[in-house]
């Protein structure tokens, strides 16, 4: 063999011939390669170019809409999973060179806000609102929904019997709700002022919780931001194409007449003149395209919304805007089926985050055997707990439902966020007294030929392929599967190293530490693309 062969001797394995890269050659090629690229290692920024032949040209733009809670109601587990997966989707697009707009599309418009206003008039307290605005709004909303329930059941029963429910809906809370929402749509100053107070309180509360989770948004948009011009444009196009039908004062689309039987019939504008969620979403597509000229728009929302997005794309096609329909992608996320007792009373995003902190603190307090390389400050406990939230979600495919398991989420000896962070902390502690730079031309690469080092190098070299596959499928679980392999090998290699005597082996130690530093970089890249902050950074 030549002095530095690219491959080791082939190994016969049945009918196969196994060919492995030479550890010496791989380390010489890989370590400087990772070092040069640092945070960009594993990613191909050319994928985000508008013209692949023009590397200095403009980027393609993607809007990623995720989280998107409703202003008047609880932060549901579907919003939580959308937040986690949506953050990853935005992150990986950015690393692949796209210009990313992260959008939180609040449910801040509609009849439900009219009902909340009716509740505020009966149960609202300025004193309680000043203390905990969003929590108080949830209390008000719960109380008014209890009052509204008998009326709502009457309407459901009438419709189930095929009767006209319009008389019931013209009285009581139905009428009060609809009148207030009509005032909102007519831009009544008092109605808009109250709505604005509610919206401002919602955004302020969630902004703080998102920051704690490490999630940011470029825009807090919402149904309220949809322009009247785009609403009119949608309706005009639907009428011109002959698909907009009037029925009992409402305007609707019967999709069965347009080669889309599975989409049933959808109301687009209600009989009292107010807009539907579908109409506002269609208008929002037009508004966003006018503002951003996006190349792709991704909605990261629950699987249950699939029909709605099929309706959106079908409506765009019926309007003659198939060009926009082709740019829309629904990245579906499955349900979280169950929560542990510590999360049973969660109503706000901050409640979930506090629950993660509590169960993580308990796990650390009870751990007596596993060595801890993280400190026990509140900040670190919070980081480990939130890491557990991300990692437990991402160990499942995004279309796979699961139940949150607090013990698995916080375990320091299993495949959890806490265990992963503990490994990262152990690795950084090994590097704490290492010079910032290594001379990669003079490193003793022969010191890295042992099987543990060779296997670690092989895993590090695979990150690019894993990241590409994850991006193609928009599947964060592929990154987690990879990181767990990386963690396992790092821990095994560190264990072996700790048993060795490295006295008077400076050159060998430098090569090992250069390997660990680049393994740490790959580790960091994998965590950050998932939205997880590495310990100590």
Automatic annotation (TrEMBL):
Pfam families: DALR_1, tRNA-synt_1d. It is an enzyme of class 6 (ligase). It catalyses: tRNA(Arg) + L-arginine + ATP = L-arginyl-tRNA(Arg) + AMP + diphosphate. GO terms for cellular component: mitochondrion. Keywords: Aminoacyl-tRNA synthetase, ATP-binding, Ligase, Nucleotide-binding, Protein biosynthesis. Its EC number is 6.1.1.19. InterPro entries: Arg-tRNA-ligase (IPR001278), ArgRS_core (IPR035684), DALR_anticod-bd (IPR008909), Rossmann-like_a/b/a_fold (IPR014729), tRNAsynth_Ia_anticodon-bd (IPR009080). Transmembrane segments: none annotated. Residues 420-534 form the DALR anticodon binding domain. GO terms for biological process: arginyl-tRNA aminoacylation; mitochondrial translation. One of its GO terms (molecular function) is arginine-tRNA ligase activity. Belongs to the class-I aminoacyl-tRNA synthetase family. This is arginine--tRNA ligase.
